[in-house]
Batch of 4 targets.
Target 1
Amino acid sequence: MTTNLRSNLHDIVCFSHLRWHFVFQRPQHLMSRFARERRVFFIEEPVYEADIDAYMAASHCLKSGVCVGVPHLPEKLRTDAEKSNVFLSALIEEFLQRNKVHLPVYWFYSPMWIEAVPSGIETSGILYDCMDELSAFKGASERLPLNEQRLIGIADLVFTGGVSLFEAKRAGHPSIHPFPSGVDLTHFLKARSTQPDPEDQRAMARPRIGYAGVIDERIDYDLLREITALRPEWQFVMLGPVVKVDPAGLPKADNLHWLGLHAYEDLPAYFSHWNVAMMPFAMNESTRYISPTKTPEFLAAGLPVVSTPIRDVVRPYGDLGLAHIASSAEEFVIRAEEAMAYHMGMKWRERADAFLQSMSWDSIWESMNSLLTATIAAKQLTGRKAPARATVTSGAVARV
């Protein structure tokens, strides 16, 4: 990408509730791709420390080219949202001015950031990528729903992380578009070839049933206790960071293994030595609108999938026979047994591969980038938001 082309594109300032070096997921996939052609500044939530003056720590992610900004605030401000936001606004404005950011696109992942965005920076566009229903998550601020209304009211463009979220939000904005989770096919196809078995699971017997992702209030821990007891000869692998739940309260069993957070680059090696991928999500408000990124990743790795009846997994994966759906522990282990037997035929993999071809992060990014470019152009031309509206027809997403 030439310097001239980069200079002709608006910088993106991304306000996120997730940290850049956390689990590699939607924000990282998209911002890394935007950084190939324009400058991207990724602002994390503040870190609070005792006895410090407020400052912004900045670093460049060498692999992606994204500049990551982490505000550091005095510990005494942790419980004072109003003062914290004053400091945040000043830090962000100074950070953007220092980097000569002019008419950026503001890209929001959390509506809470609307309280802290600096008023002294004029934008070329405002985009809200609603990847989850954050108000349903544990510890969510009571101000979040109102802030989301405010954000949607000023946004030029809104994306959602799944069809269920789109259906819930579609009436709130004239230009809202569903973008379910994508997949890096090249990366996860590595799991289909011989990979060294990672050391921390090498000694485990088989079959191995695995989950990879954030481990929080969205996991059904009672279900895990039951399925591990029903099949003590199976090994159940839980790969990912434990957040917002007490690690001491996690189920314990000789055949249940909590391996913690591992690098995105290492996931294919783990998946290569699993027999079935599981998604033991709880059926509650926090999972009502989720569209798990892991569904297409597991399928790309060549793993059969067993999931609880999450709506955006049932439709389309369950309906197309690409995922086995289970509502109880007994049904879960039966479906896993069926998945392992079905896996021997490999016909499902051919159908999964055909389905996944349209779900690459590259194609999702290209569609988002086209919508963003068109929206900014229309706004510059008319001073109004582009009127495009997305619709869902027969289970498929159409953009008109």
Note: The CA atoms of residues 28 and 59 lie 15 Å apart.
Target 2
Amino acid sequence: MSLSCFGCIVYADDEVLLTHSVEALRHMLTICENFAVEFNSNKSVFMRVGERYNSLCEPVRLFGTVLQQVQQMKYLGVCLVSDKNLKCDDNHLKVKFYRAFNCICQEQSC
């Protein structure tokens, strides 16, 4: 059985870069700068996962714009949370479900 590593996940115009270090991320961003025609660096952020997830690092830049380091981000409706291990937060989905459920019940007088 062979093991595969995917460093880039793309869906339509949404892209996630996965690297093992901040330095490797900088290298991947340089490749993006060399080949991308358009890239909205204002909407781009980065998140660290692992032992040093809470540590700040030297600024990471994309097209000269410093990317914001975040503790959580949403990708394709899934809220990813930074920690020693990658976590998903589903609280926003529960809130949406109960909001919709309450609207339906109010209309039908449950």
Note: Residues 55 and 78 are 24 Å apart (CA to CA).
Target 3
Amino acid sequence: MFVTTSQAATQLGVSARQVRRAASTGRIVSGKAGVTHTFSQRHLRAIERTAHRGRDWSVTTQRAALDLLSARSTLGLSSTERSRLKQRVRNSPVGALAGQILRDRVSLRRAVNDSAKQSLHLTLAGELGLSAGGGLAVLVSRDAPRAARSARLGLDDSGDIAVVEGDELHREVLEALALYVYGDARESSAAASWIALAQGGV
């Protein structure tokens, strides 16, 4: 479902001018219906869920945070940097953490047919109490664009498949983060609980 600029502004709690400016810079993905911008509800919900203040994390920090959440340790930082990052990861709201880690590594897609989506399964589905094959599907791959092409997934800002750039080692964390950001209310809630537990173990 798509909404207009004024509806998007109301949903995000900003002015229509700020929404148009964000759309022109690419911060908010938009389409065009004539001269009017249109925005995906799923994408707007993701922006709301991942709002954070401060500077964006570097790729090194993103990777180290994923290591901490997945394996409880990382070698990519000095001991002081690691200690500081552990504190940030433990104390960050789930949405801010998801926004920092998923920035520039996820795209929404749609399968060309039902069987293409059925072939994607969530590693965490059982653990989160989610049904297999329903809701949001997540594809994690080191070369996400190539994996999406191979699976015949087309770009779609309101799509029901999140394609995430990442390593197999981080699959569960990346699935949970994508479900939190792009999933429906039930998926997002289940993923938020899982991520909070992972944060507590860092």
Note: The mean pLDDT is 87.
Target 4
Amino acid sequence: MKDTDISPAVRKIVRDREERNFGWTCCIYCGYPYRVEIAHYVPRSRGGKGIPENLVCLCPHCHRHLDNGSDIEYTRSIKRRVESYLREQYPDWDKIDLGGRR
């Protein structure tokens, strides 16, 4: 298993975290509750780790925009929300700990 992979145990941690915070598993950006995907804040393509501190639940639409959205403002808005959410969940959260190539 690579550092960027998400284990079944980590998927469960992330889904359970979102369910605790929202009452159900949903996109943390728009609230859409169907076909939720686990998304990396620091993307796999940049070496982002498959750890709860780097992962959130997003709907396919928001996930696609986070990874490679053409609407720059919308993508920035999602990224800001994801970062803010992860900081709320993990007080010592630091982007440096999430992996990634510099």
Note: The CA atoms of residues 4 and 67 lie 15 Å apart.
